[in-house]
Amino acid sequence: MKRILISGCMFVFMLAATQVMSQEKIKEKEDKTKVKDDNSKEKTKDGKTKIKDDNTKIKIKGQDANMMYPYKAGYSSNFTMGNPAHAKLVLDVWKDWDDNMLDRHDFMADTIVWYLPDGSVTKGKEANLAGAKKFRGGLTSSVSTIDAWMPLRSVDMKEDWVAVWGTETDTWPDGKVDKREIHEIWRINKDGKVDWVRQYSSAAARQ
Protein backbone atom coordinates (compact mmCIF):
# COMPACT_ATOMS: atom_id res chain seq x y z
CA MET A 1 0.00 0.00 0.00
CA LYS A 2 2.84 2.34 0.92
CA ARG A 3 4.50 1.68 -2.45
CA ILE A 4 1.28 2.50 -4.27
CA LEU A 5 0.94 5.81 -2.37
CA ILE A 6 4.56 6.72 -3.05
CA SER A 7 4.20 5.85 -6.74
CA GLY A 8 1.00 7.90 -6.96
CA CYS A 9 2.62 10.92 -5.30
CA MET A 10 5.62 10.70 -7.63
CA PHE A 11 3.30 10.53 -10.66
CA VAL A 12 1.37 13.64 -9.52
CA PHE A 13 4.62 15.50 -8.83
CA MET A 14 6.04 14.61 -12.26
CA LEU A 15 2.80 15.65 -13.97
CA ALA A 16 2.78 19.01 -12.18
CA ALA A 17 6.45 19.59 -12.98
CA THR A 18 5.83 18.78 -16.66
CA GLN A 19 2.97 21.31 -16.81
CA VAL A 20 5.12 24.04 -15.19
CA MET A 21 7.96 23.34 -17.62
CA SER A 22 5.54 23.45 -20.55
CA GLN A 23 4.15 26.79 -19.40
CA GLU A 24 7.66 28.19 -19.02
CA LYS A 25 8.56 27.01 -22.52
CA ILE A 26 5.42 28.61 -23.95
CA LYS A 27 6.14 31.89 -22.15
CA GLU A 28 9.75 31.82 -23.30
CA LYS A 29 8.59 31.26 -26.86
CA GLU A 30 6.10 34.15 -26.65
CA ASP A 31 8.69 36.54 -25.24
CA LYS A 32 11.46 35.49 -27.61
CA THR A 33 12.56 37.78 -30.45
CA LYS A 34 13.60 35.85 -33.51
CA VAL A 35 16.48 37.27 -35.57
CA LYS A 36 17.46 35.87 -38.93
CA ASP A 37 19.39 37.22 -41.91
CA ASP A 38 17.18 37.99 -44.91
CA ASN A 39 16.16 40.71 -47.35
CA SER A 40 13.77 43.52 -46.49
CA LYS A 41 10.16 42.31 -46.17
CA GLU A 42 7.20 43.06 -43.92
CA LYS A 43 4.01 41.09 -43.25
CA THR A 44 1.06 41.81 -40.94
CA LYS A 45 -1.50 39.16 -40.04
CA ASP A 46 -3.93 38.68 -37.14
CA GLY A 47 -2.51 41.63 -35.23
CA LYS A 48 1.07 40.40 -35.56
CA THR A 49 3.81 41.93 -37.67
CA LYS A 50 6.83 40.16 -39.15
CA ILE A 51 9.64 42.40 -40.38
CA LYS A 52 12.65 41.31 -42.43
CA ASP A 53 14.92 44.30 -42.83
CA ASP A 54 18.51 44.22 -44.10
CA ASN A 55 20.17 41.62 -41.89
CA THR A 56 17.47 41.44 -39.24
CA LYS A 57 14.25 39.47 -38.91
CA ILE A 58 11.90 40.65 -36.15
CA LYS A 59 8.68 39.00 -35.04
CA ILE A 60 6.41 41.20 -32.90
CA LYS A 61 2.81 41.42 -31.71
CA GLY A 62 0.56 44.24 -32.89
CA GLN A 63 -0.52 47.10 -30.64
CA ASP A 64 -3.74 47.01 -28.66
CA ALA A 65 -6.30 48.50 -31.06
CA ASN A 66 -8.66 49.28 -28.16
CA MET A 67 -6.19 51.57 -26.38
CA MET A 68 -7.58 55.12 -26.29
CA TYR A 69 -5.03 57.97 -26.24
CA PRO A 70 -5.84 61.67 -25.65
CA TYR A 71 -3.88 62.68 -28.77
CA LYS A 72 -3.45 61.39 -32.29
CA ALA A 73 0.11 61.12 -33.56
CA GLY A 74 0.84 63.34 -36.53
CA TYR A 75 3.39 60.87 -37.84
CA SER A 76 3.04 57.46 -36.16
CA SER A 77 2.38 55.87 -32.78
CA ASN A 78 3.02 52.29 -33.89
CA PHE A 79 6.69 51.54 -33.32
CA THR A 80 8.62 48.34 -32.73
CA MET A 81 12.28 47.65 -32.05
CA GLY A 82 14.35 48.28 -35.17
CA ASN A 83 17.62 47.09 -36.65
CA PRO A 84 20.56 47.24 -34.18
CA ALA A 85 22.90 47.92 -37.12
CA HIS A 86 21.18 51.29 -37.56
CA ALA A 87 21.98 52.23 -33.96
CA LYS A 88 25.62 51.28 -34.50
CA LEU A 89 25.74 53.54 -37.56
CA VAL A 90 24.56 56.52 -35.50
CA LEU A 91 26.98 55.77 -32.65
CA ASP A 92 29.82 55.49 -35.18
CA VAL A 93 28.98 59.00 -36.37
CA TRP A 94 29.02 60.30 -32.78
CA LYS A 95 32.48 58.75 -32.35
CA ASP A 96 33.62 60.29 -35.65
CA TRP A 97 32.57 63.68 -34.26
CA ASP A 98 34.57 63.16 -31.06
CA ASP A 99 37.63 62.08 -33.04
CA ASN A 100 37.23 64.90 -35.60
CA MET A 101 37.18 62.34 -38.41
CA LEU A 102 33.91 63.10 -40.18
CA ASP A 103 35.08 61.45 -43.41
CA ARG A 104 35.58 58.09 -41.72
CA HIS A 105 32.05 56.88 -42.50
CA ASP A 106 30.00 57.74 -45.58
CA PHE A 107 26.67 57.83 -43.77
CA MET A 108 24.73 60.69 -45.38
CA ALA A 109 22.22 60.35 -48.19
CA ASP A 110 22.54 63.01 -50.89
CA THR A 111 19.11 64.36 -49.89
CA ILE A 112 19.75 64.54 -46.13
CA VAL A 113 17.95 67.26 -44.18
CA TRP A 114 19.33 68.25 -40.77
CA TYR A 115 17.33 70.29 -38.24
CA LEU A 116 19.46 71.98 -35.57
CA PRO A 117 18.31 73.11 -32.10
CA ASP A 118 18.40 76.81 -33.06
CA GLY A 119 15.77 76.21 -35.74
CA SER A 120 18.15 76.32 -38.70
CA VAL A 121 17.84 73.67 -41.41
CA THR A 122 20.67 72.41 -43.61
CA LYS A 123 19.83 70.46 -46.76
CA GLY A 124 22.03 68.18 -48.83
CA LYS A 125 25.06 66.03 -48.08
CA GLU A 126 27.67 68.53 -49.22
CA ALA A 127 26.30 71.44 -47.16
CA ASN A 128 25.82 69.33 -44.03
CA LEU A 129 29.28 67.80 -44.17
CA ALA A 130 30.94 71.18 -44.78
CA GLY A 131 29.05 72.79 -41.90
CA ALA A 132 29.87 69.97 -39.50
CA LYS A 133 33.57 70.05 -40.41
CA LYS A 134 33.73 73.83 -39.95
CA PHE A 135 32.15 73.72 -36.50
CA ARG A 136 34.09 70.69 -35.27
CA GLY A 137 37.34 72.07 -36.69
CA GLY A 138 36.94 75.17 -34.51
CA LEU A 139 36.94 73.11 -31.31
CA THR A 140 39.98 71.99 -29.37
CA SER A 141 38.15 68.85 -28.34
CA SER A 142 34.71 67.31 -28.12
CA VAL A 143 33.85 64.47 -25.76
CA SER A 144 30.54 62.63 -25.83
CA THR A 145 28.85 60.29 -23.39
CA ILE A 146 25.82 58.21 -24.36
CA ASP A 147 22.97 57.63 -21.93
CA ALA A 148 20.77 55.51 -24.18
CA TRP A 149 20.02 54.59 -27.77
CA MET A 150 17.17 52.77 -29.43
CA PRO A 151 16.64 51.60 -33.02
CA LEU A 152 12.98 51.91 -33.99
CA ARG A 153 10.71 50.78 -36.82
CA SER A 154 7.49 52.63 -37.65
CA VAL A 155 5.18 49.76 -38.58
CA ASP A 156 2.52 51.81 -40.36
CA MET A 157 4.93 54.23 -42.11
CA LYS A 158 7.49 51.47 -42.80
CA GLU A 159 10.44 53.69 -41.91
CA ASP A 160 13.49 53.13 -39.71
CA TRP A 161 14.71 55.45 -36.97
CA VAL A 162 17.30 55.70 -34.24
CA ALA A 163 16.78 57.73 -31.05
CA VAL A 164 19.84 58.64 -29.00
CA TRP A 165 20.33 60.51 -25.72
CA GLY A 166 23.71 61.80 -24.62
CA THR A 167 25.92 64.63 -23.43
CA GLU A 168 28.51 66.57 -25.43
CA THR A 169 31.32 68.55 -23.81
CA ASP A 170 33.07 70.97 -26.16
CA THR A 171 36.30 72.83 -25.41
CA TRP A 172 37.18 75.95 -27.41
CA PRO A 173 40.71 77.30 -28.12
CA ASP A 174 40.26 80.06 -25.51
CA GLY A 175 39.60 77.45 -22.82
CA LYS A 176 35.84 77.94 -22.69
CA VAL A 177 33.91 74.72 -22.07
CA ASP A 178 30.34 74.14 -23.23
CA LYS A 179 28.41 71.13 -21.96
CA ARG A 180 25.00 70.27 -23.37
CA GLU A 181 22.56 67.42 -23.21
CA ILE A 182 21.40 66.15 -26.58
CA HIS A 183 18.46 64.18 -27.92
CA GLU A 184 18.47 63.21 -31.60
CA ILE A 185 16.25 61.24 -33.95
CA TRP A 186 17.80 59.85 -37.13
CA ARG A 187 15.96 58.34 -40.08
CA ILE A 188 17.69 55.60 -42.05
CA ASN A 189 16.58 55.06 -45.65
CA LYS A 190 16.35 51.78 -47.58
CA ASP A 191 19.95 52.17 -48.74
CA GLY A 192 21.21 52.30 -45.15
CA LYS A 193 21.95 56.03 -45.33
CA VAL A 194 20.82 58.81 -43.00
CA ASP A 195 18.39 61.10 -44.83
CA TRP A 196 16.76 63.06 -41.96
CA VAL A 197 17.98 64.21 -38.54
CA ARG A 198 16.43 66.42 -35.87
CA GLN A 199 18.52 67.48 -32.90
CA TYR A 200 17.32 68.88 -29.60
CA SER A 201 19.67 70.19 -26.92
CA SER A 202 19.69 71.95 -23.56
CA ALA A 203 22.23 73.21 -21.11
CA ALA A 204 23.57 70.42 -18.93
CA ALA A 205 21.74 70.04 -15.64
CA ARG A 206 23.40 71.76 -12.70
CA GLN A 207 24.92 69.35 -10.20
Summary of the model, kept short:
With 207 residues, this protein is of the alpha+beta class. It has three helices and ten strands. The strands form two sheets. A seven-stranded mixed β-sheet has the order 4-7-8-9-10-5-6, with helices on one face.
Structure description:
With 207 residues, the chain is α+β, with helices and mostly antiparallel strands. It has a domain at 78-203: Nuclear Transport Factor 2, Chain: A (Roll). The protein has three helices and ten strands, in the order H-E-E-E-E-H-E-E-H-E-E-E-E. The chain has helices at 2-31, 84-99, 125-137, and strands spanning 41-45, 48-53, 56-61, 79-81, 108-115, 121-123, 141-154, 159-171, 177-188, 194-203. It has a seven-stranded mixed sheet with strand order 4-7-8-9-10-5-6, covered by helices on one side. Strands 1-2-3 form a three-stranded antiparallel sheet, with no helix packed on it. A hairpin with a 2-residue loop joins strand 2 and strand 3. The chain is globular and about 55 Å long. The model is unreliable at 1-39 (pLDDT under 50).
CATH architecture of the domain at 78-203: Roll
Order the strands across the largest sheet as they lie in space: 4-7-8-9-10-5-6
Beta strand %: 35-45%
CATH class of the domain at 78-203: Alpha Beta
Mean pLDDT: 81
| Low-pLDDT stretches | 1-39
Structural class: alpha+beta
Order of helices and strands: HEEEEHEEHEEEE
Q: What is Rg? A: 25 Å
Number of strands: 10
Question: Helical percent range?
Answer: 25-40%
Silhouette? globular
Terminal residue distance: 74 Å
**Total helical segments:** 3
Largest sheet: 7 strands, mixed
